[in-house]
Specification:
Mean pLDDT: 76
Number of helices: 11
Order of helices and strands: HHHHHHHHHHH
Number of strands: 0
Structural class: mainly alpha
Shape: globular
Helix content: 55-70%
CATH topology of the largest domain: Rna Polymerase Sigma Factor, Chain: A
Number of domains: 2
Length: 253
């Protein structure tokens, strides 16, 4: 299944006909920062969700996405187009997030999912019978419950679940991003769904589309941070640029 792409969130980036990733990449290579902004807004949600699944921290995920874009920008000339741009960006974001997790070495305990699902069964049935604001509020609550339970999954299952179920990457794309065999992707995805099904029963698919919503404020913050860093780098070597240059190169795909 193809990776979903996020549409631009501000009218300012919607001028003229919609350009393909290939066209935008060519424009960025020629120094067009508006094209860079469009690329970021198009792929922001996918990269954020990927980093968030690995790091389990909103702020850390935002920082990882900004770092990934800066690395990608500096390596854009090495992007050969043999894979989708989105897949290439996701892999960079995943590598950055994994490196951050290793550096942090939090070693946080993973909360086992031992629930029977009874706590959510009644809630799901009630939602079917209600409409309007009450249903929206309850849907938001189920969504938050689902996010908490996804966060409680062991790392190896959570990463695969977010990429396969939420971002709808194919098995092949997920394997490439996480650098694991395709059979391992299938096994971990099946196990992740089983754990969530045991915990959430009927609610596992109810609010999936809005898991870890990517609001306009976060999107703007990431875009502004990257553009500011790029501007500072062009004006003179910034500490951020120097720090990133020593952290390795993005994968060639």
């Amino acid at each position: 299944m193809a990776m979903k792409q996020q549409t631009a969130t501000r009218k300012a980036t919607d001028k003229g006909p919609i350009q393909s990733d290939t066209e935008l990449v060519a424009a960025v290579r020629n120094g067009d920062m508006q094209a860079m902004e469009q690329l970021m807004r198009r792929h922001n949600r996918t990269l954020y969700r990927t980093a968030r699944a690995i790091l389990r921290d909103d702020g850390e995920a935002e920082d990882a996405v900004q770092e990934a874009y800066l690395l990608a920008y500096r390596a854009l000339d090495r992007f050969r187009g043999e894979s989708r741009l989105g897949t290439w960006l996701v892999r960079i974001a995943a590598n950055v997030a994994l490196a951050r997790r290793r550096r942090n070495a939090r070693g946080a305990l993973v909360v086992p999912i031992n629930g029977t699902g009874d706590e959510t069964d009644d809630l799901g049935e009630a939602m079917i019978d209600r409409a309007g604001p009450e249903r929206e509020a309850m849907a938001a609550e189920v969504r938050r419950l689902l996010e908490r339970r996804i966060d409680a999954l062991p790392d190896m299952y959570r990463e695969v679940f977010m990429l396969r179920a939420v971002e709808e990457l194919s098995v092949e794309e997920t394997a490439a991003v996480l650098q694991i065999p395709e059979p391992t992707v299938r096994t971990r995805y099946f196990r992740a769904r089983s754990l969530l099904r045991e915990s959430l029963a009927k609610e596992v698919d109810f609010a999936l589309g809005e898991v870890f919503g990517f609001d306009g404020e976060r999107c703007d913050r990431i875009v502004s941070g990257v553009l500011a860093a790029l501007g500072a780098a062009e004006a003179g070597a910034s500490p951020l640029a120097e720090g990133l240059s020593s952290q390795g190169r993005p994968p060639q795909m």
